[in-house]
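User: Can you fold this complex?
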Amino acid sequence: METNGLKLHSKDNVATALDAMGKGSKAVVSGDDGRTETIELVEDIPFGFKFATQDISPGAPIIKYGELIGVASVAIKAGSLVHIHNVEGTRGRGDVPPQGAKA
Amino acid sequence: MKTFMGYPRPDGSAGARNWVLVLPVQRTANLVGASIGKLVEGVKVMLSPGEEGRTKRDRETIARTFVGLGMNPNVGGILLIAIEKKFSYPELAHEYFLNELRRSGKPVCAVVVAEVGGYYKALGEGVRLARELVNQVSKVHRQPCDIGKLTVGTKCGVSDATSGMVGNPVVGSMADQLIAQGGTYMFSETAEIIGAEHLLVKRTANPQVAEDLLEAVRVTEEKAKATGEDIRKINPIPSNIAAGITTLEEKSLGAIAKAGTTPIQGVLRYGERPPGKGLYFVDAWMSSLSLPLCFAAAGAQIVLYQAGGGDFPDPYPPMMAATSGIVSPLMFLTGNKHTFRKAQDNMDFDSSRALGGKVTVKQLGEELLAHIVDVASGTKTKMESLRHEDPVELYLEGPTL
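Assistant: Here's the predicted assembly.
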């Protein structure tokens, strides 16, 4: 099966869509370790957007490139779109007191 | 030794282009400089952004940028325009520029408006001198020059997911290969290393560089917080978010790939010339109106613009940012196959082939370096066939008083 999702680091809990993919379709995600996993998408994922490769709890770190890119603001189910509606940044937050990831 | 066909300069540097730079060093001299630019072929004009009411730090940035542009290897000769010998702030005095620029060994001429008899006479004298310089500079011909004399700066813009996955990694690989051959490479955009600075700091050449890098990030993040806004409302910019980038940290982690893997030798101010070879970080604003000029003032013969473009409309994408480094050509590339197709009249290089895994990032880095050597040898970038320039903006930090 052709790969249509890319996990940039084995620690990542999100993958990037290499094609636009529809709700209900199966994403074939390849990792930097050569492993492939299949994730059923629970919503449409546009090209270049991220989806969760596992369930993520509110406040848990979002990991891409093997590094922290933000924290989940709500529970995120595997196969869901991961974007500004369910992720908060942790840096340059002039709007809130300092906060970190609850790793 | 690998070579490119460049213009040898008296200071040992090698140009990719052969311009005469017209430099009105005070705002009130802009009229003369701009007019010469319209009449004389082979010149580039750097207009003054205006010096009045600016702090010493900002006046020094203006002066550094002017001198740096004149020292850029793509410049063969310089025409200074000043109002009076002792006009305006000391940092922007006629004598200062004359002395600094003469150190390049290049021909430098000057018109002082008050001495030649006013604006109309200064315009005539300026046209005469600019034409003389153009004819003189044209006698310098291209010859094989060490590729190690190349300096390249990269801005990444309209980032999307492909920027971090292939676009920036290909540029980073090119940077590694250029540096291995003795070249110099710069990256910048301090806001866009926030969240990735812990990775860059591990690569600094010495503890002072590490300290400078972290301080640059600290100051920029403090400025962001002082706005009272979530930085996500400012950067990542709307175009990034519309293309799937979620947080500044994510953008930064993708952005630093354009820095390759070699040690960071120093942290430079806007327009500051690197003191040695290798990789440098410039502490500056990310704007595409500002950064190409910064790199050119720091000595880059070629400026890369690594674009994502994931939210570009189809089939009519916007014209890409059209601000070059005044004397240094701007070259566009992208790791997004859709962007390359949509904006092919502006794009010089397609890195997207690395995504399918058929070509490696390193192979594309080699191809990109070969392409840069071609451009350094005279091949025009797509943007060079367009005469329009958006206004350039020096990175001036204020306050204005």
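The mean pLDDT of chain B is 95. Residues 161-180 of chain B form the longest helix (20 residues).
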